[in-house]
Amino acid sequence: MQSAPGLHRVKLYKLNETGGWDDKGTGLVSVGPMEFANHQSNSVGLVVIGEESQKMLMVHRILHEDIYNRQDETIITWTDPDIGTDVALSFQEGQGCNAIWQHIVRVQQDADPKHPDHRRRVIDEFDGPVGHLDGDYLHHDVGEMAGAGHIELPAAELSNLEELAKILAHVPPMQRERVAQLLMSPGYLRKVLDMFRQCEDLEDTASLHHMFRLMRSMIMLNDTQLLDELLKEEHVMDVIGCLEYDPDLQAQQQHRNFLQTAVVFKEVVPIKSQEVLQKIHQTYRIQYLKDVILPRSLDDATYATLSSLMLFNNVDVVLGLYQDANFLPETLFCCCADLQLFRTLKDRKPGDADWDDLVAFLQEFCSLAKHLQLQQRQNLWAKMTQLGMFEVRGGVAPIQTM
C-alpha cells in the first residue's frame, strides 16, 4: 500500500497487564499541531488513523522528556504517562520510521534551546551499540544484528551457534512472533536440538553454555506455538537438557535424570487415552520448568503464558476423561469395571492400600473441573451424580446433619 506524503503505515501496539503486546490495529501515522478548544498551543502530536475504519486509534502529544526509544530500523516505543502504559509503533518502512523519529528529535531539541548541551536525549538503539543484561552479549550492535530491519536466522549448524544465541538474546518485541515462526520452519528446531546432542557428545562446555542461553531465549520469546512445540514429547527432554548447562551454576544440573527416574506417575485408575496421558506428563514438566529450572529467568509475561498452558492442558485432561466411556461410562454397570472411577471407589473402603490415592484423585479431578465452561461443567456434574458421586462423598467424609 502506498501512503500519501506525510502519512506512514504502522501497526499500533500497547502493553497489557500481563506484559504482552496487544495489537490495536493498522493505520496511518502523521505529525501535526495539537489543537485545544480553549487556547492555542505550540504542542506537536502523533495521530494514528485506522486504515479501514478511518477512526482515530491514537493521539499522543510529543513530550520533552526522554521517554522515546527507537528499536531496530522500524520500531519506536515509549511509556505514555497519560495512559500509564507502554506504546509501540511498528512501521512498514524504515523511511517512515526515520521521518517520525526526526520529528520527535526536533521536539526534544526545542525543549530548552538556551541550554542544548543539558537537554535530555531520546534513546536511539538503531544509531549505536546497546547494552543487554546477558553477560557475554553486552554492547552488541542491534542494528548490525537485525540487518535491514528484519532478523534472519543463520543455518542451524555448530559453526553458527554463538551467532544464533546472540540474535535470539536481542529480538525486539515486535519481531518475536516472526522469529518464532522462523524457528518453527520445517526441520529447523530439530537441527538446533541435534546441535545440543553433538555438543554433549563432544563435552564442549562453552557451546553447551551457548545452548543454555539459546534455549532460554527461545522460551522468553513467549510465543505459545513455539512453547507448545518445545514441550512436545519428541523435543522436551532435549530442551530440558539444554537448560541443565546454566553458566551461572558451578555444575551441570540433573533435571532429565530426575524427570526420567525419580518422578513416579501413579495411575490409580487406568487411563487408556495416550493423548490424555501426554497432557498430564506435559503439564508436570511445565510446572517443573516454571518453578525449578527457570524461576530466576522468567518474566511475568512468560510465567503467565506457561501457567495458561498448564490450565488449558488441565481442561483438556478433564474433558478427555469425561468423554472416555471407560472412565465415566453412561451407566455404572459396564464390562470395563476396572477402569471406572466410581465403581473402583465403591469397591474400596477406608484403610485399603489405594484408598487415599483414589480419594486424592477424585478431589483433584473435581478441582480441575471448575475451570470448564458452564454447560460442560453442568453435564459433568450430572454424569458424576448419576454414577454415584454423592454416595462416594459420604464414604470419604460423612456429611454431618444439624
What's the topology here?
Elements: E1 8-15, E2 21-33, E3 44-50, E4 56-61, E5 68-71, E6 75-80, E7 85-91, H1 94-109, E8 123-124, H2 142-146, H3 161-168, H4 176-183, H5 188-202, H6 205-220, H7 224-230, H8 236-242, H9 255-262, H10 274-293, H11 300-322, H12 341-347, H13 355-369, H14 374-386, H15 389-396
Parallel strand pairs: 5-8
Antiparallel strand pairs: 1-2, 1-7, 2-3, 3-4, 5-6, 6-7
Q: Which features characterize this protein?
A:
single chain; 402 residues; eight-stranded mixed sheet; 8 strands; 44% helix; globular
Give the structure's gist in a few sentences.
This protein has 402 residues and is an alpha+beta fold. 44% of the residues lie in helices and 13% in strands.
| Mean pLDDT across every amino acid position | 78
Q: How does the major sheet shape up?
A: 8 strands, mixed
Oligomer: single chain
Number of strands: 8
Largest sheet: spatial strand order: 4-3-2-1-7-6-5-8
- Helix and strand content put the structural class at alpha+beta
β-strand amount: 5-15%
Helicity level: 40-55%
Descriptive account of the structure:
- This protein has helices at 94-109, 142-146, 161-168, 176-183, 188-202, 205-220, 224-230, 236-242, 255-262, 274-293, 300-322, 341-347, 355-369, 374-386, 389-396; strands at residues 8-15, 21-33, 44-50, 56-61, 68-71, 75-80, 85-91, 123-124.
- It has 402 residues and is an alpha+beta fold.
- Strands 4-3-2-1-7-6-5-8 form an eight-stranded mixed sheet, covered by helices on one side.
- The longest helix has 23 residues, at 300-322.
- Mean pLDDT is 78; it is low at 36-40, 115-148, 335-339 and 398-402.
